[in-house]
Inverse folding.
């Protein structure tokens, strides 16, 4: 059973456009939602993360929108550039109050291409 | 510190052989995680250490897999009697003590190919 569903699987956007990647989760015990960027042959790199007590977080050109009631969150990339072309993963984890320090549960990823 | 390092970066082995991978976390991190990533998928959690104690194992971690972190620093992941289905990228991540557990820093991974 996939606990974090990510869409779309792939996305092509023109330079300067705003790609939006969506994720939905099932486990209401999740309380930490990071986004990772991965280039071919590299490990994932943390981009931005959010906790459910806020509805939006911005860091540079990256914005997370969070809807706790709908159990959904999304990543927006402003003024996208060809260098942003990569695979993006959403993830979720439970807090220490969940009784254990389990690992991250990842979505299946979105392959993003920014065309010049 | 240059980040999390993993060795080797690539490993090709024949089915039935044993393989061992090493992960060196960021030096002040006390938490260390192992993940497996297959082509076109997100990383899947395998196991987690806090210092030298292995605190959690995923059901994905079969009896053929064993991980250690003997002195709370580097970690090793061994796969015995490898199968073709073990072919994947094995990722290691580490994090600061008592920090947001999502703030995990990943290494470059070890790509395993089982022939």
């Amino acid at each position: 059973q996939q606990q974090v569903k990510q869409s779309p699987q792939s996305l092509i956007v023109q330079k300067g456009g705003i790609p939006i990647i969506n994720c939905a989760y099932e486990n209401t015990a999740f309380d930490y939602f990071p986004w990772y960027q991965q280039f071919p042959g590299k490990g994932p790199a943390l981009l931005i993360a959010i906790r459910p007590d806020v509805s939006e977080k911005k860091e540079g050109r990256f914005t997370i929108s969070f809807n706790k009631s709908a159990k959904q969150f999304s990543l927006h990339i402003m003024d996208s550039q060809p260098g942003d072309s990569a695979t993006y993963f959403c993830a979720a984890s439970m807090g220490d109050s969940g009784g254990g320090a389990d690992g991250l549960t990842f979505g299946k990823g979105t392959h993003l291409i920014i065309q010049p | 510190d240059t980040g999390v390092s993993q060795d080797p970066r690539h490993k090709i082995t024949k089915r039935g052989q044993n393989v061992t991978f090493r992960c060196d976390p960021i030096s002040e991190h006390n938490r260390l995680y192992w993940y497996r990533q297959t082509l076109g998928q997100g990383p899947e959690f395998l196991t987690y250490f806090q210092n030298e104690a292995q605190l959690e194992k995923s059901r994905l971690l079969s009896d053929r897999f064993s991980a250690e972190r003997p002195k709370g620093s580097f970690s090793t992941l061994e796969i015995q009697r490898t199968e073709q289905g073990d072919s994947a990228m094995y990722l290691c991540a580490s994090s600061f003590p008592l920090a947001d557990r999502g703030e995990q820093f990943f290494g470059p991974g070890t790509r395993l190919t089982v022939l």
